[in-house]
Amino acid sequence: MSYLVGVTALWAFSFSLIGVYLAGQVDSYFAVLLRVGLAALIFLPFLRPRLLSGKQRVTLMAIGAVQLGVMYIFFYQSFLLLSVPEVLLFTIFTPVYIALLDDILFGRFTPFYLLTALLAVLGAAVIRYDSIDGSFWVGFLVVQGANICFALSQVGYRRFAAELSTSLPWHNVFGWFFLGALVVALPAFLLLGNAAALPSNGLQWGVLAWLGLAASGGGYFLWNRGATMVDAGTLAIMNNALIPAGLLVNLVIWNREADLIRLVLGALIIAFSLWLNNWWRERHGYKTA
Predict the structure, then answer these.
(1) From residue 155, how far is each of 98, 149, 231, 238, 251 by CA, in Å?
(2) What are 9-12's contacts with CB under 8 Å, separation 24+?
(3) Nearest Cα to 9, choosing from 207, 271, 222?
(4) Interval 16-25: pLDDT, tens
(5) In this predicted model, which residue has the larger pLDDT, 42 or 270?
């Protein structure tokens, strides 16, 4: 749980950094490629191929390809179609996808996880629902593509990790995750990217460096490790905890307008859903996977 909380605090800056400094200014495919490439550089020196079988390496690469490669492409495109508040709003469905997919992959059905995930969606909607016009549907679908990729890859990682030794040194194998993302990000930039829209100043390069080394490199390693240490309900809820955290950062640093009453009310609903999920899990003796 501490991993998820820490990464939530780290990622709280990402929405505003992308929306303020990158969206519409830096080619989105290049931004994805650089983030993934920098993250890979952190873990490649530690890579020990013999720790995983060929099939396991391919599986971890596939998870990385979906979670970072495909998801990031959807995610960055969404900022070209929607405002930052709309992107935040449309991410609220991720907990529902996680609750359902986790049950499917682990061969069970836990209605209570779906209930707490829906509570988290309600809390996020209270915080970030704004009036939207009729031209938002394409952007909505693009964000849902990112949500489904992120949910599927988190659940897939949980399933993958559950079949491996608990003593496996993950820092020695996680490089495969980022190599899988590069398999998607590099051809996407070569085929669809705009080389004329590279970063034009030191601030943009600095933002991309932070997003690549810290948010992507450290963030996804710790987030996925945390995902294996909690139950599906907690993981689903924590996916929406990012919304109040992101809005708080946006309010404090960039002084954007935010309804503090809705922010507090929505955060309380998300916190209640997390407490309710933990209470139910402890009462019924559910394990983390």
Answers:
(1) 7, 10, 11, 14, 32
(2) 9/245, 10/214, 10/215, 10/218, 10/219, 11/215, 11/219, 11/242, 11/245, 11/246, 12/242, 12/245, 12/246, 12/248, 12/249
(3) 222
(4) 888 888 888 9
(5) 42
Coil, strand or helix: which one is 22? helix
What's the distance, CA 277 to chain centroid? 21
Q: Enter the pTM of the model.
A: 0.80
- Which pLDDT does position 110 carry in this prediction? 65
Band (pLDDT 50/70/90 cuts) for residue 220 is: very high
Mention every residue, 6+ apart, whose C-beta is less than 8 A from residue 76: 18, 22, 23, 28, 29, 31, 32
> Rounded CA gap, 279 and 237, in Å?
14
What is the rounded distance in angstroms from the CA atom of residue 31 to the CA atom of residue 25?
10
The pLDDT assigned to 139 comes to 79
How far apart are the C-alpha atoms of 64 and 213, rounded to whole Å? 16
| C-alpha closest to that of 25 among 146, 201, 191, 235 | 201
Closest CA to 93 of 124, 134, 126, 69: 124
Radius of gyration of the chain (CA): 18
